Amino acid sequence: MSKLSQAIAEGDGISVLVEVSDGHEAGRAQKQGADALVVRSGAAGVRDASHLPLLLVGQADGDRAVAADAVVVPADAEIWDEAHELGIECVVQVSDSDDLERALDELDPEVFLLSPDPDSDDDALETLLALLHDVPAGKLAIAELRHASADDVAELERAGVDAVLVTSANVTALVPATPPEV
Question: Residue 114's beta-bridge partner residues?
Fold first, then answer.
């Protein structure tokens, strides 16, 4: 089990993954009780600022891949294989039931990132809950709801989501008032 999967699986309740852009945000998210960090690009100083697991969204190459504990990949066998060759856990991103079915048929991943289509007019929370319904038992599900409210997170947790990915701007509303001892 990778560092990211372990942090999600061992947490009490729903885990909070916080998207950060630099070392300062990473340190602040860790102090606020985040369970893991997410970077999209320009992860300068993030690995040095925190011991939390690091999930990379984007290309799994170069220094960023070496620093990451896991990488988000589409339901694509070629990219999946490349990331596994680097020894990095793959989190498969799915936006609809077709993506989910393809991922299960071709890859059988252990961790899914459920991501609503940003161009869709559908309610993001409802889309996530519908996708979660089709994730097999025993698999980890991370819901990408970047601007989640505490009520949204509570609903996702009740539905069985293992973790939620949010921005650093709203993490204080989602984690316990007293961060865990480090």
Answer: 94, 143
Instruction: Give the pLDDT confidence of 81-100 residue by residue, as tens digits.
Output: 887 787 889 999 999 999 99
Q: Which of 166, 106, 105, 104 is nearest to 139 (CA)?
A: 104
Determine, yes or no, domain membership for 180: no
Residue 10 sits in which domain range? 3-172
With a CB cutoff of 8 Å and minimum separation 6, the contacts of 10 are none
Q: How many domains does the chain have?
A: 1
CATH code: domain of residue 132: 3.20.20.70
Closest CA to 77 of 55, 57, 105, 54: 105
For 41-82, the pLDDT digits (tens) are 756 689 889 999 999 987 655 544 557 889 999 887 787 888
Residue 177 has pLDDT above 60, yes or no: no
